[in-house]
Design a protein that fits this description.
Structural class: alpha/beta
Strand content: 25-35%
Strand order of the largest sheet: 5-4-3-6-7-8-9-10-11
Number of strands: 11
Shape: elongated
Order of helices and strands: HHEEEEEEHEEEHEE
Length: about 180
């Protein structure tokens, strides 16, 4: 609202840029273009794609950088279909998640990125990762041998009639446990 009351000629773009960059650490650059008499164009370039993580204990969604730094928190679910939840009661902007969690989350995101049937992922720890699917189904995987477990999950999902009456697929073992 302060920008609306400031004449374009007197607008301090450098200080506004610094405030914006400080408030949003994921920004790589911000550029202003004054189009007189009363238009200001703002060009924003994000430095990285953020990962959406849900924190059930505080009912908030967090945007994580690829390095694991918390970029932003919001109580409103972002308009993305896939998010990952991790247990944490006290993540704030600027905090970082553990490197083990980050590595597991990034591997999960990479391995599962093309699977449209996945609704969400719940990361309890490296040995208990739940992948939620439509129709109240979920799979349990671990970070050990994740690629093989996901390949098995994709095979099972392709055989819809085979898993019709199954609600839980535990893929952490050498042979899947279906319940």
């Amino acid at each position: 609202s302060r920008l609306q009351k400031t004449p374009l000629l007197f607008l301090e773009t450098l200080s506004t840029k610094m405030k914006l960059m400080g408030a949003l650490p994921q920004l790589q650059s911000v550029e202003f273009k004054k189009l007189y008499p009363h238009t200001l164009k703002i060009y924003v370039l994000s430095s990285q794609e953020s990962l959406v993580v849900y924190l059930p204990e505080i009912t908030s969604y967090v945007f994580l950088s690829p390095q694991g730094k918390v970029l932003n928190l919001t109580p409103v679910k972002p308009e993305r279909t896939l998010y990952i939840s991790i247990p944490s009661k006290s993540l704030r902007q600027g905090d970082e998640v553990s490197q083990q969690e980050l590595q597991d989350i990034m591997r999960l995101k990479e391995v599962l990125k093309n699977n449209a049937s996945i609704l969400s992922i719940e990361y309890a720890n490296s040995q208990d990762i739940r992948v939620y699917l439509p129709n109240n189904k979920h799979a349990v995987v671990s970070s050990d041998g994740l690629e093989k477990q996901v390949a098995t999950l994709q095979l099972l999902l392709n055989e819809a009639t085979m898993i019709e009456n199954i609600s839980v697929m535990d893929l952490r073992f050498s042979h899947p446990v279906l319940r």
